[in-house]
Amino acid sequence: MLSGIITAILLVLFIVGWMWAWSPRRQHDFDAAARLPLDEQATSVVIASQANHRNKERVS
């Protein structure tokens, strides 16, 4: 009985998460994230940020 309730709750959570991910309001965010690898300026900022993070780890 308990396993059936847990399964039903997990199914509902999965469906809610799926609906959130595919909602039209999220499309702009996902489109922007999909373009990030093609955007040279954003890529250079990410690379510089990663380099700074590595340098801080070496100093610590």
TrEMBL record:
InterPro entries: Cbb3-typ_cyt_oxidase_comp. This is Cytochrome c oxidase cbb3-type subunit 4. It comes from the Bacteria.
